[in-house]
Design brief:
This protein is of the alpha/beta class and 307 residues long. It folds into 2 domains: 140 residues, Murein tetrapeptidase LD-carboxypeptidase, N-terminal domain (Rossmann fold, 3-Layer(aba) Sandwich), CATH 3.40.50.10740; 143 residues, Glucose Oxidase, domain 1. Helix content is 27%, strand content 21%. The strands form 2 sheets. It has an 8-stranded mixed beta sheet with strand order 6-14-13-8-9-10-11-7. A 6-stranded mixed beta sheet has the order 2-1-3-4-5-12, with helices on both faces.
Length: 307
Amino acid sequence: MKPKALQKGSRIGIVSPARFPREEWLVQGKAALEAAGYEVLIHAQNHLQDHQLAGSDEQRAAAIMDYFKDSSIDAILVARGGIGSYRVVPHLDFDVIRANPKVFCGFSDITTLINVIHSRTGLVTFHGPMLLSFFKDHDPDNITHFINFFSGAEPSEPIHYPTSQAFTAGAGEGRLVGGNLTLLQNLIGTKDDIDTNGAILYLEDDDGEKLSDIDRALWHFKNAGKFKKINGLIIGEFCGFREDSAGLWKHSIPDLLRELIPAHIPIATHFPCGHGKSIVPLPIGIRARLETTDKQVVLTCLQSPFA
């Protein structure tokens, strides 16, 4: 099941399923999207605070459901991540979501929601920018990537990612699956555990992680069989390691990849799909082709993610 592509004048609803956003973030993000030609609605729930969260679990879930039910809303974009999105899952009505397919986009803590919604409804969801991605010190091209991708113009074209690097050269095809490493790890063993067999898997992680924590999470993935039958691997920037661990832990990200991933699997690193300044949308469940050479990384969606 696929949502419709967006165009100028499409209505984007903003919700906060995790931490509450600052008021100025809502203003700046709304302005950026409106300047791009969209109509933007800020749900009242964004202004709520329940300790560090943007309202109670029920209130955060209700905001998501309000916009899925509203036929005038073409896309749902989250304001920010943080923590707590997993708490709203029991309060979502997946029958309603299934009956009202539309763009749902976010990353980081929102990894839980984009994967659970896809798992339980079949709706193609999107690991991609949040409202916070369109201002501050983020790449100004993020809004351009958003417009081009969600218009339907970009996904079917081979896209060269000049900031990404080929760790292992090769080519592979499969369903795009993935998101934040920590949140995906928390889905292992649950009914919403992701299926990586035959997939192009992409992984990113939070700022300030210890390398030893990433090592533990990646070994959990390996021991759970998540790397055994993948056809390609996309790794985000994995930026901002804590200083106290970077010099003490004997492994680096390249060391871990050599230990854990079969040598024939094409691997792209430093991909703009996480907590760095740049982030591009990646659809969950759409078949894609990853090509990595010593000169470039190219990702091509072999199916449109839009109806």
